[in-house]
Amino acid sequence: MKKQIANAVLLAALLASTAACNTVKGFGEDVQSVGRAGEEAID
């Protein structure tokens, strides 16, 4: 279970870092997506 969560967070972080964050708002949305991915992995 912990490995799945770690993998989901890592994947989300990778996607967020490769996504184009042209604005602070865009960066905030990427951070939110990482949080959502973590929550979904926990559920």
Question: What is this structure's SSE topology?
Answer:
Layout: H1 2-18, H2 24-42
Helix pairs in contact: 1-2
Can you characterise this structure?
There is one protein chain. The chain has 43 residues and is mainly alpha-helical. The protein is built from two helices and no strands. It has one domain (2-42). The chain has helices at residues 2-18, 24-42. Helix 1 packs antiparallel against helix 2 (24-42). The radius of gyration is 11 Å and the shape is elongated. 5% of the residues are buried.
Brief description of this entry?
The protein has 43 residues and is mainly alpha-helical. It is built from two helices and no strands. It has helices spanning 2-18, 24-42.
Helix-and-strand structural type: mainly alpha
State Rg.
11 Å
Number of domains: 1
Number of helices: 2
Spell the H/E element sequence. Answer: HH
In what range is the share of β-strand residues? Answer: under 5%
As a percent range, the share of helical residues equals: over 70%
Task: Compute the number of strand runs.
Answer: 0
| Low-confidence segments | none
Distance between the termini: 10 Å
Shape, principal axes of CA atoms: elongated
Average pLDDT taken over every residue: 77
Please summarize the sheet with the most strands.
none
